[in-house]
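Batch 3, record 17
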Amino acid sequence: MEKEYTPQIIGFLCTWCSYTGADLAGVSRLQIPPSIRVIRLMCSGRIDPLFVTKAFISGSDGVMMMGCHPGDCHYQKGNYYTRRRYKTINSVFESLHLDTERIFLSWVSASEGVKYAHVTKEFSDKITGLGPNPVKKEIFL
Amino acid sequence: MTATENIKIEKPPKGASIPAKEGIKKAILGVFKKALETEALDAIMIPVKVPETESYAWVLLKDTTLLENADPLPPVMTIQGGKVLSDLTKHGKINKNIAAVLRPCETRAAVELFKLKQLHFENITLISIDCPGAIPLSEYLAEPEKSKKSFDNVLDKWDGDDAVRKVCQICYRFSLPTLTNAPASDLHIGLSGNTKDDVLLIPVTPKGEKILERLDLKADSSLQKWETKIKEIKKIKSQRRKKFNHDFKANISGPEKFTAVFDGCINCHNCQSVCPICYCQQCYFDSATTKLSSEDYFRRAKERGALRFPLDTILFHLGRMSHMALSCVSCGACEDACPMSISVSQVFSLVGEQTQQAFNYTPGINREESLALQDYLEDEFCEVETPSECEPTNSNEVKENV
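Prediction for the assembled complex:
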């Protein structure tokens, strides 16, 4: 029997909202896709565009950026910067026709365990549909 | 075109016309000589031909005899002027009153470095000059005399001759807008296109006006003729850029083609060290973090079937792009420095332009504008969020909280 394809997705989660939200999803016994690997950060504003490009080039099938809702940032404005950085990465990838579908940004608050389970499942399903990241097999990369 | 470039002011600016009977460069150097003699300026930072070789270096000079070998618009851009100015003032303002003569791309790099807090503008008069482009460094060094002639030819005709670098051929920011409410340089030198009888000194800021005042030059000539000519060239170059980028994009798009462009990269990081915008003291890509243990190398080799060394050259370029694309001024220093003749600056220019358009931001065109990544609006780019959460009620709530 052919082994079912499980993508590898890296998630950058801020500790105050999204990580706590993910924790709540676990405590609430909601199903979270096994494809997600979470990296906890103090704030989504800590996400250097390099983290995302490195994860992508190293062959992750998807990269998630998650933080508090705009206006709810523990550090007042970190997530506003995150949004601009995401837009930058998106534009760079778009202008080179790299797969922008594989990167996504979402706001999940500490109380939104259900939302976390929902968006991760949707994203994981989407990535499964897209298949493995083509850069994975590029030796000259 | 960004918002800043479209700002209209009511009173049309004027410039001081300097007769240029003996050539444009002589006329400009004459003005600088007078400025140094009358002590309107304490020193000038200007490219000077290095004795014995054909190269140019930046020299901070006070001695007017040194001006004889100076060239306000050398045929090549050996060192990015913005970077030089940053080196000079990074650790605090200077107390002397100096002027720096920069090409528009160098001026814009200086403004970006100013915004990045790597440069102080106090006591510095930034003089920008219309630029027809620069000859590729390698070509110039191989045949200096021929290159000088072809550069003079380009300066004469003001059309993107094939002699200049590719990124210069498609550069439509070869001049700077002289808007007093959105200044880049303090004084702009307008070379009035095909007629070579005069040079225009256009004051942009009070600092620029002061210099003209000290030199007894009256800014009373209309800029109309110059502006029309600039517009004409701009139109041609913009069209050429559009066409070039369209064709070029097809050659570099997608992971395979993008990899192919940078395949020759030998990981020397020359492009990064000459880049005026790459100002970090320690670049991630030069750090020990990028060196892995042999187990890690083997793990990676196993994943891909083989492992290419040097490692992560593509990540280097893509990472650098995601860091500085928003501030890229398309000066082409990276391509000049590339020993493998990779079209680095063409790729960066294309990616930079598209990224800057996403933020409606033009790097270095306006000192008063803040950097795109140091600024934000509470209500923007909601389309990038998943799921998109920009219902009007939501955004109103945010506004009330402010």
